[in-house]
Amino acid sequence: MDFTIVTPSFRQLDYLACCIASVADQQGVNVEHIIQDGGTPGFAEFAHQIEKKWPNRPGYRRTMISEKDEGMYDAINRGLKKGSGAICAYLNCDEQYLPGALEEAGKLFLEKPDEDVILGDVLVVGSTGQAICHRKMVKPSLAHTWTCHFAALTAGIFFRRKLVEEGILFDTRYRAAADAEWFVRVLHSGKKVCCLRKTTSTFMEDGANLGLSPVAKEERARLDASAPAILRVLRPAWVWGHRFRRLFRGAYRAEDVNYQIYVSGKDRRESFSTAKLRTTWPGRMWSR
Length: 288
Hints:
Distance between the termini: 37 Å
CATH class: Alpha Beta
Number of helices: 10
């Protein structure tokens, strides 16, 4: 397999149906999609319906598992260990891949064999599918990620299986901020990270995302406190340095966007267009 995509699931079947469809219709790659459900009522019936709509075929295989877990990141770790793809990623139920996303990521991994992690740009969309902002990636620095915030969105992160084999998995002691802590360890271990500079994914902003919860804020503070004192003292420098790099790379430049995603109750991707879409995320602390 070229790709292993893991989706942690719990009580989000409407979103999950769209997420599965966005993986199942990817072209030009071999992909296995592992859904790790934590015990959603009706999951077996849902899986049967999905099997009829998106059956396994050459180049695409889906595994749907329902078992008790210790939270989202434990589910992701379980799925990653079960997979066999050379390139890994995780996609939450309320996230989707855009057409051709996996093919583009796979090409860059072939072109840059020394790169361990690739970051794609992400569209933040509302519950109806309309775009809210366009998050263009720049390579996060260790200091900024450790002491300020995690500037990447996980819907656009792809990484080589060797990270899993080396034990660089998600720390389940974190319930909401394990992705940031994971990326700190990725950077601290010297893994090479680059940006795809293409939009691969969408993330749905519904006002109730885990990253805004009190748990997330407490865990973010705990991660900040674990950084060396010198990094914490220089926090303003990392913030302004990150902003300058975003400006230099054109990450603040508004552009027209056209995209196709699945919406609940529809069998095909719906087309959307937004003129001069903003790049900052309204009301979010990491819109910097």
